[in-house]
Amino acid sequence: MSLRPLAELDRPLEAIRRFTPNWFAVTMGVGVVALVLAQVPVPGLRAVGEALWLVDIGLFVLFSGLYAARWILFGDEARRIFGHATASMFIGTIPMGLATIINGFVVFGLPRFGQAAIEIAHGLWWIDAVLAIGCGVLLPYLMFTRQEHALDRMTAVWLLPVVAAEVTAASAGLVAPHLADPGARFVLLASGYVLWAYSVPIAFAILTILLLRMALHRLPPADMAASSWLTLGPIGTGALGLLLLGGDAPAVFAQHGLAEVGRVAQGLGVIGGLALWGLGLWWLLLALLITGRHVREGAPFNLGWWGYVFPLGVYTLATLRLGGTLDLIGLKAAGTVLAAALVAVWGLVAARTLHGAWRGDLFSAPCLAAPAPAA
């Protein structure tokens, strides 16, 4: 389907007709930048982060309205996304975008609105958990039963529906300490750790297949250049989740006579987080090399470029958390450098997104070319 500037569309509703979940990757990126700015000890950055968090809420509400309108007005066409091997994967960005808002209610909302912010975060967290669990199993089921896939066409977008659950698990580590029992215990243990395990092993299985695919069939095409960074997402989020859950574990376990288990969980969180951080460093360096190659080849801009932002953001958060936990100046400095790089990348991608959205070039729905699903 050919693309035309928004001003030249036959009718304004065409933008809604072509609106897809890819746009929720924008909320993921804006949200994670806001959270990173709140962790960097530079005066004024926390206020900037809070402003971005409010923008993130506005964008999520706007995108939710547009996507809901697409289903209401163009339901038959909207259903075609379930048969599209790539577009359907981006449904996983919806719960991940919501998770950044939930985390913001703890980081920014608690100091400003008090316990009411925690109540909102807790309620949204349960919604997010349901969405993440659904994405984590239903979208792979569609891959197995309805969609057409091949190893040589595989990219890291396969990770998107799976990783949503571990992003929700990391949010549990932020929300749980502010809840009273039994809510805190359930969110941390029965939900946080379970959601982490629901996601991370599957994500690593996909990463293993992805290594094989790149070795046998070389890199993905230039229009999927940013997908090389998606591999950093589950690693960074997995490390951050272990650190956050492990940090909460001693207090929660101690309330139930399991103080020793809590200390073990805390130690595993630190060791596991550090090990995953090291693995993430390998993927980060590899992604830089791949990106350099794609830049030389002239990779075209698309919404997939937001794949540069969120994975780097969660890896930055894990780095800063590790630096604070271990009190290592080197990790703290690395986190600050990564934060600066993140802001630079986010600025570039955000500017090009605003330009593309104004022109209408980014309203693309490849699933419209897919055949209508069987009744």
From TrEMBL:
In terms of Gene3D superfamilies, this protein maps to: Voltage-dependent anion channel
From the UniProt record, which GO molecular function terms apply?
A: sulfite transmembrane transporter activity
Membrane topology type, per the record?
Answer: Multi-pass membrane protein
The UniProt record lists the keyword Transport: yes
| Record-annotated membrane-spanning stretches | 21-40, 52-73, 85-111, 123-144, 156-176, 196-216, 228-247, 267-291, 303-323, 329-349
One GO CC term of this entry?
Answer: plasma membrane
The similarity annotation says: Belongs to the tellurite-resistance/dicarboxylate transporter (TDT) family.
The name on file for this protein is: C4-dicarboxylate ABC transporter
User: From which source organism is this entry?
Assistant: Caulobacter mirabilis
